[in-house]
Amino acid sequence: MFHHPKWIDETMGFGWAGVDLFFVLSGYLISTPLFRRMAQAKPISVPDFFIKRIFRIIPLYLVLLSIYFMIPAFREKEALPPLWKFLTFTQNFGFDIKNYGTFSHVWSLCVEEHFYLLFPWVIAALIYGKAWKKGWILILLLFVLGLVVRIAGWHFLIAPHKDQSDFGIIWYRLIYYPTYNRLDGLLAGIAIGALFTFKPAIKGRLSKNGNSILILGMLVLVGAWFLCKDQKSFYATVFGFPLVSAGFGLLVMSAICPSCVLYRFNSRATTLIAKLSYALYLSHKGVIHLIQPQIAKTGIDPKGTLMLLLCFITALLGAYMLNKAIETPFLRLRAIILEHRKKRQNPGNVQTIVRSKTRATEKC
């Protein structure tokens, strides 16, 4: 099991909120292309959407899942949840992190998959019902519903166990992991995508104040840090998730404003990490679990900063190999399939742009 450096343990107690940034980014990146097609009065293909998501997510996921089940040495903890929970993406419901903590981080992928499954159908229904211009009402209702569900969950499911020794485990199982409690980040990302697509005048004004939005987002996150010092308290449970999502939403909004310093920041290193992010997300625990004991044999402090750096580099190399061996070929295949579907739908279009599209699709 990976040992964090001491300074990480002392200063990064808010690190759990990183998954909320992941949700905000996902909500924005997935919804924006669909919103742009809607704004241009172009049809939205639900099958194409699922083809894109399946070829992006499933192949590498199945490879890592196979490794976890076939190679026990790769497991960072003793026991795996049942295989059917992984295959049905239901691991985040009733999740027993204490006894089945191996490959536990894919609970957030379960939330993502539920989002991918439902979101295009919601958009299609709004278009069919000619109600998409009032979609902001649905976003607001879902946000309020999230608050109501967490309030009810706290009073009826959590509070009765407040004095029990396993209270923390119960809180994580019933509050932290379930999809219906984690919609805030996705809704924040969707709201940003809709605002910047359908409200060009507001987008223009916001784009001129990117740095101010960045500062505001940081201040909101500082406030969220104070609110969530006791992560399992009532106020953190009910209001912590939306406040964290609002802070990260403002950071994402600032990053897409040309006036913001984040927008102008372009680094090959960060671009590479972004490209490898999915493979890194899936494989890092297993790779670190394998490599850290070997590095420790050289005398390097298991809790030192150098160990952290070496483990990160090793995990990055593992993600790079997985990207080249698994992700890239399937993304190329995806581009070919989508281009073939496009030609079938538009027989007069004989452009062959698969190769150029492949590079662009690798980022999605």
Automatic annotation (TrEMBL):
Coiled-coil segments: none
InterPro entries, per database record: Acyl_transf_3_dom (IPR002656), Acyltransferase_3 (IPR050879)
Keywords tagged on the record: Acyltransferase, Membrane, Transferase, Transmembrane, Transmembrane helix
Any GO molecular function: acyltransferase activity
Transmembrane segments: 12-34, 54-74, 114-129, 136-159, 179-198, 210-227, 239-265, 304-322
UniProt cross-references to Pfam families, sorted A to Z: Acyl_transf_3 (PF01757)
Residues in Acyltransferase domain copies: 13-322
Protein name in UniProt: Acyltransferase
Organism of provenance: Compostibacter hankyongensis
